[in-house]
Amino acid sequence: MTALGRPRLHLRATTSTNDRARELAQAGAPHGTLVTASEQSAGRGRQGRTWSAPAGQALLMSVVLHSPPLLLPLAAGVAVAEAAGPDARVKWPNDVLIDDRKVAGILAESRPPARWVVLGIGLNVAVRLDDLPPELHTTAGTLGLQPADVEPTLARVLAGVERVLVLEPAALLDAYRARDALRGREITWSGGRGRAAGIDDAGRLVVELPGGGRSVLAAGEVHLTG
Ligand code: BTN
């Protein structure tokens, strides 16, 4: 049995599981403390986005991790992709895609100098795409499972996160590279465009530029083109 997930607070509805988990972390909650919800009224994503999920159709979870590894954002992407199945890929830094559609998003939040991180994961386990806001219809994906599969999926995700937390960096980078959704593909980002050339050993995205040369992205958001 995994050590992550205890104690657990499950809420039928809340603003954001990351909010609840952060409150618990600030109050001294132990490593592995888990908050789940069936529904969020203010789910949030990276880059100031919102995160939408129809009630009861998605895994919405936040786990408190003490002393997380440097590569936690990538590690979490690998863990969630592995739980999502053999066709799941990771789009740097940690979106999880199936057939280029986003099935999961990950938001790691901390409050320096605190030594904890709240790792928030939204995974569209049983989401009917028609139930999502229209603007997500062309980009979102789903595992296409049933609501009853949310709980077993949670167990797989927790076991996966626990496993990647103790991976040596080289093994983690190998696992990430095996599921890299971007390598060899044309991408754009706020600073330009180019062809993704994998991640370096610090977990940064390497991009080959159209005019020759390379850029290395340490943070931010990239988009697949075409
Ligand atoms: C992203 O892709 O932008 C990250 C999305 C993270 C969504 C999850 S759902 C559970 C947890 N609570 C939140 O408010 N956000 C994360």
Explain the overall architecture.
- This protein has 226 residues and is an alpha+beta fold.
- It folds into two domains: 8-178, Bira Bifunctional Protein, Domain 2 (BirA Bifunctional Protein, domain 2, 2-Layer Sandwich); 186-224, Roll (SH3 type barrels).
- The protein is 22% helix and 31% strand.
- The strands form two sheets. Strands 1-2-3-7-6-5-4 form a seven-stranded mixed sheet, with helices on both faces. The protein has a five-stranded antiparallel sheet with strand order 11-10-9-8-12, with no helix packed on it.
- Strand 6 and strand 7 form a beta hairpin.
- The chain starts with 7 loop residues before the first strand and ends with a strand.
- The mean pLDDT is 97.
- Residues 16-18, 40, 43-46, 49, 51, 60-62, 95, 105-107, 120-122 line the site of biotin.
